[in-house]
Amino acid sequence: MKTYFSSDFKLGVLGGGQLGKMLLAETQKFDVHTSILDPSKEAPCAAHCNEFHVGNLLDYDTVYNFGKTVDVLTIEIEHVNIEALYQLEKEGVKVYPQPNVIEVIQHKGKQKDFYVEKGIPTSPHQRFATLEALKQASFEFPFVWKSAQFGYDGTGVKIVRSQEDINGLADTECITEELIPFKNELAVIVARNASGEIKTYPVVEMEFHPEANQVEYVICPARISDAVAAKANEVALKVAESFEHVGLLAVEMFQTEADEIIVNEVAPRTHNSGHYSIEASLTNQFEQHLRTVLNLPLGHTNSKMAGIMVNLVGEEGFSGNVFYENMEEVLKLEGVTPHIYGKKETRPFRKMGHVTIVNEDITVAREVAEQVKNTIRVISK
Question: Taking Cα atoms as reference points, which of 149, 147, 150 lies closest to residue 170?
Fold first, then answer.
């Protein structure tokens, strides 16, 4: 029987960003040997793994050759060469999440088509190969435009309110979606291992920055009724069962004005909406991800207490060597834990870290979160 702990077993991770860095805290806890591939030699993971390799995640040979050196291959970003993953899987390397899951999710058009095919509630959409094709179509304004691939952290997503806005869109394969009025943006993280064991984390509520289209706060538990929470959990499970993924699946959803739940999109990995779990959950999402891809028993997902995450992003007007202003003031606050991702340079709206606030009372936690947001500033020296 293969042992994962303190042995010659090797876990490979495609991507060496902050998600990888937080995963490494768990692999080090279990003494699992890790090998990381990332395009930047200064990636947050570089100083924390057993082996670090620099290479293009979208290059077939780079990903294939890296994958041949590990026993299990996982991801911390879905923008990877999918053909290489299929070949590695064919040759017996365990790739989790599976290539067929990543292929659907990394393309927003295929992802939306998948929801329609599986009867999963989602907003109506259209697919377009080019900007010119989109311009030939007729629309009711406003609508949502999304680049089919490579969007992240608010990039590649725009609300289009006029014909003039269409002219300013990127010339790329894309989708359009009806703009659905909603009360809340919610998320559920679903964990599933190769044996089929499945667990969900509590429903969280996400508050977004109006300009950057980035999450500012993640609130757990979501401030919604038990009936809406049950419905969100049910939809998330249906999505996970449809994909039959191994790993974590972050399912982002809208709670409509009529309290219906519709799926926005998913991420096949650890996710910003689960960072609160490091301090607030019995099993944090990064340990859980490790358990899923190693096919270990899943950990309990209950919360110890209420948790709120505040994203730390670069202030507008600042670029260069990062400086975290007023960090000492934030550390004086009760139940506050900062996580700094190790990125040396800041720029406007770049994710540089997060802060978790835990408290028995969600209302108190939210007040402290506001205080944190208004105190700490990510600027340049």
Answer: 147
Report the first-to-last Cα separation within the chain, whole angstroms: 53
Nearest to 185 by CA among 266, 253, 265: 253
The reported pTM is 0.95
Q: Which CATH class is domain 10-95?
A: alpha beta
**Domain 182-380, CATH:** 3.30.470.20
Checking DSSP bridges between strand 345-346 and strand 320-325, what pairing results, if any?
A: antiparallel
Return the pLDDT at 154: 61
**DSSP string over 254-298:** EEETTS-EEEEEEESS--GGGTTHHHHBSS-HHHHHHHHHTTPPP
124-178 adopts what CATH topology? Answer: Dna Ligase; domain 1 (3.30.1490)
Residue 43 token pair: 């990636």
Are the C-beta atoms of 335 and 341 separated by less than 8 Å? no
The residues, any chain, with a CB within 8 Å of residue 328's CB and separated by 6 or more, are none
| Pair 84, 67: CB distance under 8 Å | yes
Average the pLDDT over 87-99 and give the result: 98
Residue 163 has pLDDT above 90, yes or no: no
Every domain of the chain with CATH number 3.30.470.20 lies at 182-380
Dump pLDDT digits (tens) for 22-42: 999 999 999 999 999 999 999
